[in-house]
Amino acid sequence: MIATLSRTNASAATLTKNRTEGSVVPASGMCVTCVDGCIGMCEIGKSAYRGHEVIYPQPFGVITAAAEKSYPVDYSHFSIMGTTVGAHGVGADSDQAIFPAVRLEVAFGHDNGIKFRRPWIIPGIGSTDIAKNNWEGLAIGSALAGTGLTIGENVVGMDPQAVFKSGRVVETVDLKRRLQLYRDHQRDGYGAIIVQANIEDTRLGTQEYAIEKLGAECVELKWGQGAKDIGGEVKIRDLRQAQALHERGYLVLPDPSDPRVVQEFEHGGLREFERHSRVGMVSEESFAERIQQLRQAGAKYIFLKTGAYRPADLARAVVWASRYKLDLLTVDGAGGGTGMSPWRMMNEWGIPPVYLHSLLYRYAKRLADRGRYLPALAVAGGFAFEDQIFKGLAMGAPFVKLIGMARAPIAAAMVGKTIGRTIDEGQIPIYVERFGNSKQEIFVTAGALRKELGDDEFKKLPTGALGLYTYYERLDQGLRQLMAGSRKFALEHLSRDDIAALTREAAEVSGIRYVMDVDEGRAEAILDG
Q1: Range(s) for CATH 3.20.20.70 in the chain?
Q2: Which end of the chain is least crowded, N or C, by CB within 10 Å?
Q3: Sequence-ordered alpha helix ranges (H) in 274-406
Q4: Could you name the CATH architecture of 98-227+282-487?
């Protein structure tokens, strides 16, 4: 019997639940008995009076969300292989092969000019409130850690203080702030801040402005993400802002220029608008033209991010990234994180991470075997901890150089920010207060950072940045320990042989050896020797 993979009609994401929670129809998610007189706690019931609002995770602006669907194969279906012999990257000596000796630095780009201290990147934090409200922590924490951070889509279009001439941006506040926060805290040239663009950003000239006026070196084209296969969405609760976005070319629902809609909003019958981005229309001709435009504008590095589309689209991404000599291709599996995406879409569309990343490896290897250029690859889709990072890097070795994460870093930054607020208010929760009552005592990395930065600079650090930096420090040490256990002391030594599939299905999907077949032949030779 195959278990149900999806949850339907009731979720914390949509603030809905079943009346008969212990007895639910698997196919529809409805209560076994639907009673006349129920106030409508389930998704169907809530949709009866709030309609399209229930499509999206709630409440907007203070949450991130990811799919609840349980896929047949995920990264937990693989196990990390350790060994008792040898060492790769250091001498096979117990005094040398210690986990602090593991090197996590990675360099990539056409000239290997981009350097990260750790092999992960935040692949796109855009115009949602949750992103804007936590940008300080994300930017400063990422810069201090020497990792990558991507300014996501629609930031310029959503900036109420941005100035446009003839439909092109000439001045911004938010984009300038986001770039500068990162740069002001970047150390020794490690890390990168990337400016992403969708179709509206391209029309508004966002990347040309970022390159020519703000000195951005890294830009990224966006085909999509794992959370959805339509453009970005946000909610707008201000009529003037909705009208401004409509004038800038966005799809705003309902139409804020319609006098009847304006009247309804002013009388309280309508409380919010939805801003939607259009879907792009990909063609090789337009792709090649855009790459050329960005290079002529002065872009030093060009990336592409794509989502969980069908295999033919992944093949296009890989081939075009190769053909036009891009510097990084990020591939984001289905079910990914969002500030606002259609909830059912997030659960029911696209190719899940292990499946998509396995296809990516297959396609990359096919090109590499023919001697074709390959950019660095990054994979994303629900990564949060060091074991998952290890598995993602091993699954795509030697082509995958980075792991993309968004929800987990945002969570760390939000927790850090919240702790800082409780410190300022003198209301530290007991759960946290046992570690101390100042950021120096509570954040375990504070002492080392204070020594590195000096007292004055440390005092200025927002606790959101401390939260992200400290979370990254945990991932750093955890990944070093796992790699040392596999006797791999630098990232370039990781291989697909460092993980094993725990089920036959996982082995079939990924091409990774089934655990009972690992070392087949070698073990027998030892036994017979």
Answers
A1: 98-227+282-487
A2: N
A3: 284-297, 311-323, 343-348, 353-369, 386-395
A4: Alpha-Beta Barrel (3.20)
